[in-house]
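**Folding the chain**
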Amino acid sequence: MMSNLLSAIDDEQKVTRRHRRILWASGLGIFLDGYDLSIMAIVLILLKPQWHLGPTVLGLLGTAALVGALIGGLFGGIIADRYGRKTVYLIDIAAFFFAALLSGFAWDITSLVILRFILGLGVGADYPLSSTYIAEFMPKNKRGSAMTWIFGLWMGGALVSSLVGLALLHTGPDAWRWMLASGALPAVLVLWLRRSLPESPRWYIYRGRLQEAAQVLRWLVPDVDAHERERLVQETASSMQASRNVSWTMLFSKPYLRRTVYACVPWFMMDVMGYALGIFLPFMLMHMGLKTPEQAIIGNSFFTASFVLGWIPLALMIDRIGRRRAQIWGFLGDAISLGLVGLFALSGEPPFIIVAAGLIIWQIANSFGPGNTTWIIPTELYPTELRATGHGFATAFSRFGGVVSVFFLPTLQAELGNGGLLLVLAGAGLIGVLTTWWLGSEMAGQALPEMLEPGSQRAA
């Protein structure tokens, strides 16, 4: 049974300035994720000739942060469910700050890989934290839209990283150092915004800390008077008991296995496509019509900016059309656009207009679908005790897809050419269509699940 405290939050229809503060504090962390991961695409253009990097080292530098994100997502979600969302919410941004700043002082490949790995730990932990935190505070009829608006800031961070990279491109041989260290500046703002945010009331309730949950309710919905809050606390205490012995293995118990596969496999496929294009697109553009680093970075910026053409319509429509349908349409657009460009590229260098049109269509389709929905869906599938853990596992699984894609992409590109590579990525889009259609369930307009399903304890 859902507690009255949780009902009071879910039934609250108006988004207040406190909701907006939560959204900005979470969203700027997502912005940092996009910025710090994407700036590497510009850095590698400079480092490849300066440090004489081969395909293997390029793949290693491109994947270091993704491996960190895999581990950060896996353990960050578990820690957040056990010790609270806010506990990790500041630590991950502190990791951002120091790793980004110190990356600018890296003295060799090993030190840069280690620092990018540490930065990735913060990135990975922030995914389940931000999604869970937003979902547990937002009204159910606005949850999908709010999460879409906020996750779009990831692409905003990626776009700003391209513009910053372009501005710093000719500042000398240390330009790449300034690019990497620049991520430390917005991290300070995020730390300041998050410093006094409250813990999630849902987490308080499931830890039996009902008075503290009531205080957060007072902060979020201040028009509830003291007597009403006391009544809500008493009714909550009599109607709900926190589950115990919660384990991440419950994600694979019979009630949750299908949901876990649904959360993981489409996101894996999205990252196979997304990180391959996000990190190595400037290199691909230089082999498909653009001849200089400046042209490649400008082309990458236009490609990134086109995400708004899919992101804005999704944010306006997602609570009406649902997450599953948008994800299927988006994956289908991804597969068709990459497949067509790949077929053209098989016969030689295609006309640049074909390349540009296909990549922009991919970006629009992806932003309307899996580029946003794969982040939202895991948050809505699990109860409070498993929510961050489930999202963290899906984050880790998806980053494994990114690691595989980015590490092997230079080799695949050398073996298959751009055409063959794009056809492989189109295949990942088709798998995303099929798995979403087969496994997907719709949570639009529904309250977040609160209690563990019967039978889940047996897997613990």
Remarks:
- The two ends are 22 Å apart (CA to CA).
- Residues 341 and 355 are 6 Å apart (CA to CA).
- The chain is about 75% helix and 0% strand.
